[in-house]
Design goal:
Chain B: Its EC number is 6.3.5.3, 3.5.1.2. The complex is a heterodimer of chains A (about 80) and B (about 220). Chain A is of the alpha+beta class and about 80 residues long. Chain A has a single domain, classed as Phosphoribosylformylglycinamidine synthase subunit PurS (Mth169, Chain: A), CATH 3.30.1280.10. Chain A contains two helices and three strands; from the N terminus they run βαβαβ. In chain A, strands 2-1-3 form a three-stranded antiparallel sheet, covered by helices on one side. Chain A is elongated and about 45 Å long. The model of chain A has no long low-confidence stretch (mean pLDDT about 95). With about 220 residues, chain B is α/β, with parallel strands linked by helices. Chain B has a single domain, classed as Rossmann fold (3-Layer(aba) Sandwich). In chain B, strand 10 and strand 11 form a beta hairpin. The longest helix of chain B has 11 residues. The chains are: A alpha+beta (about 80), B alpha/beta (about 220). At the A-B interface, helix 1 and helix 2 of A face loops of B.
C-alpha cells in the first residue's frame, strides 16, 4: 500500500521560496500568477494492507516527524 | 561547571563551543548522538551549530528524534540547563523544548556576518553577564534563521520576559526581530547568533564570552 503525504506551510506563514517562484514566473512573462505556495510531497511504501490502519499510522508519522505542526499542515492520500 | 556538547553527523561548531566553554572554566565532554544517556552530574548540555543530518526534511528534524535528544529533553525536564546555538536552536524547537520554528531567511540568502544584537533580558543564567538593553556584536551564519512564532505565543514570550536577544537590523525576517528565546523556566536558551565565534579577540570579537562566563559562574556550585 502506498501513501502520499503533502506538507505545506500553514496559511499565514510567509513562504519566501514560493514568493521567489511567483516573482520568477512573472519575469518569464506568465501573467496573473497571484500567489505561489511551495510544499513537499513524501511517498511511502507501506507493508500495511488495511487502509484505515495505514491512515492512522501515517498521521502519527506526520505528527511526530514528517511535518512540523507549529508551521506546517499535512494531508495524506492512501492508494 | 560540568558541560556536555552533543555531536551529530554534520555538526561543525562543536569544537569551537567546547573551546569557548573550557575558556570559561567548564569541564567539557563531547557526547555522540547515538549515545542514549548523558554523562552523570552535568550542569549544562550544549547543542552546537552545523547541519545535523544534512538538514534533511527540515533543519534539526532528524537530530531532534535521535536517542541522545530524548535524554536532553529529560534533562531539561528535570531542570537542567540547555543551550542551543544555530542548528542547536533549530533542534530545540523541533524537540518542543522551545516554542516557534526557524524558517528559510526571508530574502532566501545564506547570511554569514557579524550582526548587532540587543540584550533584552539579563534575567537568566545565560544573560546575567550583560545588562538589559546592552548592544553586542555576534556573528550569524545561517540559511534558516527566520524565527516564526504565532501572535499568542509571542505575547507570552514578551509578557514573561523570555526574549533574550533581538537583532538591531533584522537580517532574516524573524518575528519581532527575535534572535534568541528562553524556555518558561529560563533554563533553556536557543539563539541563532554564534557566541562561540565571538569568544576570542584573535577571531574578531569577544562579545560572546560574557555568556559562557555567566553560565560558568551561575552553575559552578550547581
Amino acid at each position: 500500500m502506498k501513501a502520499r503525504v503533502h506538507v505545506m506551510l500553514k496559511n499565514g506563514v510567509l513562504d519566501p521560496q514560493g514568493e521567489a517562484v511567483r516573482h520568477a514566473l512573472g519575469t518569464l512573462g506568465f501573467e496573473g500568477v497571484e500567489a505561489v505556495r511551495q510544499g513537499k510531497v513524501i511517498e511511502l511504501d507501506l507493508a500495511e494492507t488495511d487502509k484505515a490502519k495505514a491512515e492512522a499510522s501515517v498521521a502519527k508519522m506526520c505528527e511526530k516527524l514528517l511535518a512540523n505542526t507549529v508551521i506546517e499542515s499535512y494531508s495524506v492520500e492512501i492508494a | 561547571m560540568r558541560a556536555a556538547v552533543i555531536v551529530f553527523p554534520g555538526s561543525n561548531c562543536d569544537r569551537d563551543l567546547v573551546v569557548a566553554l573550557e575558556q570559561a572554566g567548564a569541564d567539557v565532554q563531547m557526547v555522540w548522538h547515538k549515545d542514549k544517556e548523558l554523562p552523570a552530574g552535568l550542569d549544562l548540555v550544549a547543542v552546537p551549530g552545523g547541519f545535523s543530518f544534512g538538514d534533511y526534511l527540515r533543519c534539526g528534524a532528524i537530530a531532534a528524534q535521535s536517542p541522545i535528544c530524548r535524554s536532553v529533553v529529560n534533562f531539561a525536564g528535570k531542570g537542567g540547563y540547555v543551550l542551543g546555538i544555530c542548528n542547536g536552536f533549530q533542534i530545540l524547537t523541533e524537540t518542543g523544548l522551545l516554542p516557534g520554528a526557524l524558517l528559510r531567511n526571508a530574502d532566501l540568502h545564506y547570511i554569514c556576518k557579524y550582526v548587532p544584537l540587543t540584550v533584552q533580558t539579563a534575567n537568566s543564567a545565560f544573560t546575567r553577564g550583560y545588562t538589559k538593553g546592552q548592544n553586542i556584536n555576534i556573528p550569524i551564519a545561517h540559511h534558516d534563521g527566520n524565527y516564526n512564532v504565532d501572535p499568542e505565543t509571542l505575547g507570552r514570550l514578551k509578557g514573561d520576559d523570555r526574549i533574550a536577544f533581538t537583532y538591531g537590523d533584522n537580517p532574516n525576517g524573524s518575528t519581532a526581530d527575535i534572535a534568541g528565546v528562553l524556555s518558561e523556566n529560563r533554563r533553556v536558551l536557543g539563539m541563532m547568533p554564534h557566541p562561540e565565534r565571538a569568544a576570542d579577540s584573535r577571531l574578531g570579537g569577544t562579545d560572546g564570552t560574557a555568556l559562557f562566563r555567566a553560565l560558568a559562574d551561575s552553575l559552578v556550585a550547581a
